[in-house]
């Protein structure tokens, strides 16, 4: 079946592609990965898969990827293709050049474009919702933390708690330092680990992973999606393969207690007995950490670096922090000193964002958990504690985070 009509991916072709994908055919599953930018492939894989798009008969058992990688992203690929069909300006927004190889993720999925991700936060559609800066801007810029949740003192113990020949899925990766440390520890201590990273911005994550060089015992793959969308991916994995979900403190601290309880309960049903969570919680927000955010205009500076243009003028904002007693969380924002506009944050079209005097741009929420709250969470979601690591504030001796390895041992009671 030809996937391109006159150099473009036609609507009728996508409809036929969806039909074949729903039959789980090998060629169409791999084709959807390419069309959706769902994975990072080697050059040889790109050539093989690109050839499959125009000549499916060219594939043989010796040239395709292993069946696990073929099928693992099928649910997200289907969702992507269904979304394409709902686009109003379909032909102009989603076209493929016949001279191109594998399309980049930014060409194919607007939600994976970092500039657009930032713009979405600054132009919320929901009435009354604060403008915000996505926390992902700190992925490669987490240098304010002298001591990570996964660091030299506990990395080997954490890696040794994960079985050989297993799958690790990291969701909402907000700290490259922790991801990098965990990957290297797994490579040194484990064998045959498949490590998937579920990220809203595939190209940024892929670039970071490439900087690690070759890993002998860990095979990495980047997937596009949110933690909620990861449920479909987890369900698609072989039940007999041990799995660990890594959800670390920088990410969990931005969710409400009810959101975390609901997510753990949902994932519980997608996992199997013996599968595990590596999950971290903030137990304190160091004053020195907030001071560094304030002095360095950190979020604003990171956005400017990522966009490679001065979207934010530091002198036009002041750092604002408070503790919300009702919600039991720390809140950090940037207050607009005087009304002005932000113009065209690199999205390929002229865009303006109106800012009013004293308006707040949300930077981060931090929910702090007590030991009792963590115990109750695991009881309610029917997860059993296996290991536990406590970290100290790098600027004092107080406890600032807890990292838990918890396991599913039973089917969840409804």
Automatic annotation (TrEMBL):
GO terms for biological process: methylation. One of its GO terms (molecular function) is methyltransferase activity. It comes from the Eukaryota. Keywords: Methyltransferase, Transferase. Pfam families: Methyltransf_33 (PF10017). Residues 150-395 form the Histidine-specific methyltransferase SAM-dependent domain. This is Histidine-specific methyltransferase SAM-dependent domain-containing protein.
């Amino acid at each position: 079946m030809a996937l391109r009509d006159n150099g473009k991916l036609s609507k009728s072709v996508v409809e036929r592609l969806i039909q074949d994908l729903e039959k789980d055919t090998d060629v169409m599953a791999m084709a959807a990965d390419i069309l959706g930018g769902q994975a990072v492939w080697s050059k040889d894989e790109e050539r093989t898969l690109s050839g499959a798009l125009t000549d499916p008969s060219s594939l043989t058992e010796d040239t395709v990827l292993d069946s696990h990688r073929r099928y693992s992203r099928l649910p997200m690929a289907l969702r992507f293709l269904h979304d394409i069909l709902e686009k109003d300006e379909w032909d102009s927004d989603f076209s493929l050049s016949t001279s191109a190889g594998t399309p980049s993720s930014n060409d194919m999925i607007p939600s994976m474009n970092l500039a657009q991700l930032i713009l979405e936060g600054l132009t919320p559609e929901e009435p009354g919702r604060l403008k915000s800066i996505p926390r992902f801007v700190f992925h490669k810029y987490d240098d304010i933390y002298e001591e990570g949740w996964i660091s030299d003192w506990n990395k080997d113990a954490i890696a040794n708690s994960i079985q050989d020949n297993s799958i690790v899925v990291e969701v909402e990766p907000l700290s490259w330092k922790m991801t990098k440390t965990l990957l290297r520890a797994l490579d040194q201590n484990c064998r045959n680990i498949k490590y998937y990273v579920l990220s809203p911005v595939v190209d940024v994550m892929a670039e970071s992973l490439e900087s690690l060089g070759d890993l002998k015992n860990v095979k990495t793959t980047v997937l596009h999606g949110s933690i909620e969308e990861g449920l479909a991916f987890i369900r698609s994995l072989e039940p007999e393969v041990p799995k660990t979900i890594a959800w670390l403190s920088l990410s969990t601290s931005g969710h409400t207690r009810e959101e975390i309880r609901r997510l753990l309960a949902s994932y519980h049903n997608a996992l199997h007995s013996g599968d595990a969570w590596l999950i971290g919680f903030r137990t304190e927000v160091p004053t020195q950490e907030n001071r560094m955010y304030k002095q360095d205009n950190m979020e604003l500076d990171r956005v400017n670096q990522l966009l490679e243009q001065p979207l934010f003028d530091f002198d036009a904002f002041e750092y604002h922090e408070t503790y919300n007693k009702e919600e039991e969380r720390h809140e950090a924002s940037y207050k607009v000193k005087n009304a002005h506009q932000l113009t065209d944050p690199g999205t390929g079209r002229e865009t303006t964002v109106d800012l009013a005097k004293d308006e707040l741009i949300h930077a981060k929420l931090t929910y702090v958990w007590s030991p009792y709250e963590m115990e109750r969470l695991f009881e309610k979601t029917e997860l059993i504690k296996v290991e536990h690591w406590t970290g100290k504030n790098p600027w004092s001796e107080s406890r600032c985070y807890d990292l838990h390895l918890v396991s599913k041992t039973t089917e969840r009671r409804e």
